[in-house]
Q: What sequence folds into this?
């Protein structure tokens, strides 16, 4: 009985295998092909945002293209000249006799010996290109890299941190000062980043209005307004009198590329990384009003 049982199992298994082998193989289901479309893409490497005609242009080592933000088209263009961040003649440093002076048009104010020495030391110690130096339009302040000086007092301006840092365990530090007409824009942080806070001041260092998210570029929008851009690509529009006009939260990637350029008067182009997708180009109207997105497009990276 034991042998017969074993034989039955063997024969039964062989019969099942024979029947299974005799069944026709299942045909693969035709699910079709993924639809594909050839579109312009952004090469790897450093990308520069410039202005071609009245629209944005993206430039890299191999050329420049101007993308149409309302379609899938793009056109290769000659590399445009950089668009200045500010419109018209700006206050500047000039050599005057044996010293330096803060000048605008034909008006000049000579700098004191301490400020002159500080500028010379900053220029001598510059490692990554020329040190950033700006002069306020009223000729009362000179911004040098991380700080600013009073022309009349010939000493550094003692800025105050934004109110939000009050009571903070981590002490804020001043990370930079930029000139915007007669105003100054200070950049503060109290972490490894990104957590930059911008504060607009007058040329004496007095805080004006509420703090803003900071860390990005500053650019003039039109004759009466400028924009402070955060490291996330948020846009804050202010008047040259220090009045806060409005904001637009973009929510970009602070670890990626970020640039802004003025197009037609009152319009800005913003370029920032769209994480995991590509490079996003946005066009805003920001002349004297809360910034309004008018068109946008994300160009995929050529190399995923």
A:
């Amino acid at each position: 009985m034991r042998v017969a049982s074993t034989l039955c199992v063997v024969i039964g298994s062989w019969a099942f295998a024979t029947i299974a082998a005799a069944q026709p193989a299942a045909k693969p289901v035709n699910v079709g092909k993924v639809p594909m479309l050839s579109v312009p893409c952004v090469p790897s490497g450093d990308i520069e945002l410039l202005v071609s005609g009245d629209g944005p242009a993206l430039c890299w080592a191999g050329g420049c293209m101007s993308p149409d933000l309302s379609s899938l088209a793009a056109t290769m263009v000659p590399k445009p000249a950089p668009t200045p961040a500010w419109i018209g003649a700006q206050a500047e440093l000039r050599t005057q006799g044996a010293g330096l002076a803060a000048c605008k048009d034909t008006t000049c104010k000579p700098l004191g010996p301490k400020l002159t020495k500080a500028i010379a030391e900053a220029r001598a110690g510059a490692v990554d290109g020329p040190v950033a130096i700006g002069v306020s339009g009223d000729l009362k302040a000179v911004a040098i890299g991380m700080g600013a000086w009073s022309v009349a007092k010939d000493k550094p301006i003692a800025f105050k941190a934004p109110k939000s840092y009050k009571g903070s365990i981590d002490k804020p530090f001043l990370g930079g000062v930029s000139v915007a007409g007669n105003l100054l824009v200070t950049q503060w942080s109290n972490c490894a980043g990104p957590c930059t806070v911008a504060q607009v001041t007058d040329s004496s260092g007095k805080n004006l209005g509420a703090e803003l998210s900071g860390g990005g570029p500053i650019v003039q929008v039109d004759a009466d307004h400028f924009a402070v851009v955060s490291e996330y690509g948020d846009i804050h529009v202010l008047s040259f009198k220090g009045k806060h006009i409005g904001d637009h939260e973009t929510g970009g990637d602070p670890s990626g590329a970020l640039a802004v350029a003025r197009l037609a008067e009152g319009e800005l182009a913003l370029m920032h990384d769209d994480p995991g997708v590509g490079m996003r180009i946005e066009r805003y109207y920001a002349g004297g009003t809360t910034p309004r997105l008018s068109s946008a497009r994300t160009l995929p990276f050529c190399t995923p």
